[in-house]
């Protein structure tokens, strides 16, 4: 018990490691911003200091399409048309539409599986669970073909189609949640003569704000990050989302000397919503991840 | 079930699913209304494509002409396709590297958090890289690892070391990709493990401290064994997730140099959308389904075998 107290170097050292980890997490993002405000022509000679010698917003202006083609080329761009305003808007539309509609429809489906009685329920739910185990690439190829056959390439319907109505995961997640809700409240409303449909809208949904928000956040993050699907079905200028735009921008950029300052400016734009999410929903995000950990 | 990284685990179930009050009438019509959109979505974009995919895998088809039925030829071809085996080997190599880095670094980070601080801000900051879109992560690290102007090579040359072509050298490309994806996933993994550590009751630590057990010894003898279930969970989730690596490779190396980073997902993509071999790509995809099915089965056994000692 009474061991002589050693000089504690352990704790400061542990703090140093933790702070190093935070630095490793965040420094690359700082470097993204630092590169984005460096004049393209100067990057080769000015790629090391913590701040660029002549900070500029020109790179943001040219990826947002606010400069003329000549100005963009003079600043180190390839001269390809870029309109990150539009891509940003498309990403917001894609993410918002899929998240809102999918969450609501999956809540209805989850409730039906958890609380309603109808023939074939367990069989149907079994199929949804089985679909959880199928890697997305397997359905991605035929879905691409389907969207192509429908003539929906480069349209919003084609972009949102596979995720708009449901994902097996969202239905599964919400069914599990509804199963865990005590029945008392619903029973009381039933006795008062309310139908189960009304109970869902008036009682169950308002009670479930927490899990619905958790699920919506998760869906929003995935949809925002989604790359392969939008790149395949909606690469056109009108429907191009941010992630696809970044991929295409990279391809247009010369292989020998990529337009790093422009690419980093576009990258900064793609993570602004992410940072907003952390600022506004940091606690919920962290909690929902940790909740998975507790459950595991 | 197959969880992808980032999916919140479903909440626990309080009661049995089927406890229906005797005399409750069926809710057929309401159920039909509530389920209709989800069923349409499921039928059109999950069931139908799965059946079509299975059919394509038995055809020769370039997206333009009519699919030609070839039986099991695609599967026979796959068994003798050195690039398929290469893709499996590369994927396995990536999985080992990625899991190794993420689990070790994540565990260390979780232990630090657990012993030092409850700061929510710190935890939020650690999870930021996980929220960055994969494409952005890929671009950012391509720039950081750039052979001429990249920041990492700036550090290396500053320390008197030779600059490296991290993404262009056949030996370094795959480990570099693993480092990139680990950068984005480690904070997330650490948070999962940290949550598992919080479940170890305080009195266990007090007992260990009374026995004169030091910090490091307690971690290996007490914390780690009690975290077996969460470790198993994280292991299998990241395993299945790692098998599906695509975005980072598609942005940074495009499978190169000389197939050094041609993981299975990228190989399938390339067969389908560069070479327009839809039949063969579907056969490859279905094989991946089987591989992941086996992994999921093993996962379930593993999870069942790893019930906590705390229970």
TrEMBL record, chain A:
Q: Which residues form a coiled coil?
A: none
Looking up PANTHER family in the UniProt record yields: ABC TRANSPORTER PERMEASE PROTEIN MG189-RELATED (PTHR43744:SF12), ABC TRANSPORTER PERMEASE PROTEIN MG189-RELATED-RELATED (PTHR43744)
Keyword tags: Cell membrane, Membrane, Transmembrane, Transmembrane helix, Transport
Name the residues that span the membrane: 12-33, 92-114, 123-147, 159-178, 199-224, 260-281
Localisation: Cell membrane
InterPro entries recorded? MetI-like, MetI-like_sf
Q: Does the keyword NADP apply?
A: no
What range(s) does the ABC transmembrane type-1 domain occupy?
Answer: 88-281
Q: Name one GO cellular component term.
A: plasma membrane
What the record says about family reads: Belongs to the binding-protein-dependent transport system permease family.
Q: Which GO terms describe its biological process?
A: transmembrane transport
Q: What is this protein called?
A: Carbohydrate ABC transporter permease
Q: Does the keyword Translocase apply?
A: no
For membrane topology, the record states: Multi-pass membrane protein
* UniProt xrefs under Pfam families: BPD_transp_1
Task: Tell me, in one coarse class, where this protein mainly resides.
Answer: membrane
UniProtKB/TrEMBL annotation, chain B:
Q: What is its main location?
A: membrane
A single GO cellular-component term from the record reads: plasma membrane
Topology relative to the lipid bilayer, per the entry, is: Multi-pass membrane protein
Query: Which residue spans traverse the membrane?
Result: 30-48, 92-113, 125-144, 177-199, 219-240, 278-298
Question: Which keywords does this chain's UniProt record carry?
Answer: Cell membrane, Membrane, Transmembrane, Transmembrane helix, Transport
Q: Which GO terms describe its biological process?
A: transmembrane transport
Question: What InterPro entries does this protein's entry cite?
Answer: ABC_transporter_permease, MetI-like, MetI-like_sf
Cellular compartment(s): Cell membrane
Highest taxon of the lineage: Bacteria
Domain (ABC transmembrane type-1) ranges: 84-299
Give the family per the record: Belongs to the binding-protein-dependent transport system permease family.
PANTHER family assigned to the protein according to its UniProt record, in alphabetical order: ABC TRANSPORTER PERMEASE PROTEIN, DIACETYLCHITOBIOSE UPTAKE SYSTEM PERMEASE PROTEIN NGCF
Kindly provide the name given to this protein in its UniProt entry: Sugar ABC transporter permease
Q: Which organism is it from?
A: Nonomuraea rhodomycinica
């Amino acid at each position: 018990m009474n061991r002589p107290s050693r000089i504690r170097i352990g704790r400061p050292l542990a703090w140093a490691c933790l702070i190093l980890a935070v630095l490793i997490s965040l420094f690359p993002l700082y470097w993204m911003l630092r590169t984005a405000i460096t004049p393209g022509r100067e990057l080769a000679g000015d790629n090391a200091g913590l701040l660029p010698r002549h900070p500029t917003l020109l790179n943001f202006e040219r990826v947002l399409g606010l400069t003329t083609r000549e100005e963009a080329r003079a600043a180190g761009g390839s001269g390809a048309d870029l309109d990150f305003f539009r891509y940003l808007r498309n990403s917001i539309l894609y993410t918002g539409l899929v998240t809102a509609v999918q969450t609501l429809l999956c809540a209805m489906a989850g409730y039906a599986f958890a609380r309603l009685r109808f023939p074939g329920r367990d069989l149907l739910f079994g199929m949804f669970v089985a679909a959880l185990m199928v890697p997305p690439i397997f359905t991605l190829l035929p879905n691409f073909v389907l969207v192509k056959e429908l003539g929906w390439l480069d349209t919003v319907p084609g972009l949102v189609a596979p995720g708009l109505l449901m994902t097996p995961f969202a239905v599964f997640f919400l069914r599990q949640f509804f199963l865990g809700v005590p029945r008392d409240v619903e029973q009381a409303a039933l006795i008062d003569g309310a139908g189960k449909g009304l109970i869902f809208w008036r009682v169950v949904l308002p009670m479930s704000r927490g899990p619905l928000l958790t699920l919506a956040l998760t869906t929003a993050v995935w949809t925002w990050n989604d790359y392969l699907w939008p790149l395949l079905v909606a690469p056109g200028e009108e429907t191009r989302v941010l992630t696809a735009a970044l991929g295409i921008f990279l391809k247009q950029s010369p292989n020998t000397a990529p337009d790093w300052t422009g690419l980093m400016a576009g990258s900064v734009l793609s993570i602004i919503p992410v940072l907003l999410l952390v600022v506004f929903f940091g606690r919920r995000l962290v909690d929902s991840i940790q909740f998975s950990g507790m459950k595991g | 079930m197959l969880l992808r990284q980032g999916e919140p685990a479903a909440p626990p179930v309080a009661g049995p699913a089927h406890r229906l009050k005797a005399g409750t009438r069926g809710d057929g019509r309401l159920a039909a209304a509530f389920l209709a959109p989800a069923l349409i979505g499921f039928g059109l974009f999950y069931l139908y494509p799965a059946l079509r995919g299975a059919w394509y895998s038995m055809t020769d088809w370039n997206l333009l002409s009519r699919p030609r039925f070839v039986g099991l030829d695609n599967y026979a071809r796959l068994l003798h396709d050195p690039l398929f085996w290469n893709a499996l080997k590369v994927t396995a190599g990536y999985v080992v590297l990625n899991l190794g880095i993420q689990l070790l670094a994540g565990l260390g980070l979780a232990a630090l958090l657990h012993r030092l601080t409850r700061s929510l801000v710190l935890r939020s900051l650690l999870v930021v890289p996980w929220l960055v879109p994969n494409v952005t992560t890929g671009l950012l690290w391509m720039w950081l690892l750039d052979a001429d102007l990249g920041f990492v090579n700036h550090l290396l040359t500053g320390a008197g070391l030779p600059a490296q072509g991290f993404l262009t050298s056949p030996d370094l490309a795959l480990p570099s990709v693993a480092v990139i994806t680990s950068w984005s996933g480690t904070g997330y993994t650490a948070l999962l493990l940290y949550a598992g550590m919080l479940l170890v009751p305080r009195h266990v630590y007090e007992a260990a401290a009374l026995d004169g057990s030091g910090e490091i010894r307690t971690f290996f003898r007490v914390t780690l064994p009690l975290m077996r279930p969460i470790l198993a969970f994280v292991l299998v989730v990241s395993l299945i997730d790692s098998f599906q690596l695509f975005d980072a490779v598609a942005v940074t190396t495009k499978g190169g140099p000389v197939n050094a980073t041609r993981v299975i997902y990228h190989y399938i993509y390339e067969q389908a959308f560069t070479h327009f071999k839809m039949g063969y790509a579907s056969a490859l995809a279905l094989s991946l389904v089987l591989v992941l099915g086996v992994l999921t089965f093993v996962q379930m056994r593993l999870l069942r075998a790893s019930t906590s000692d705390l229970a």
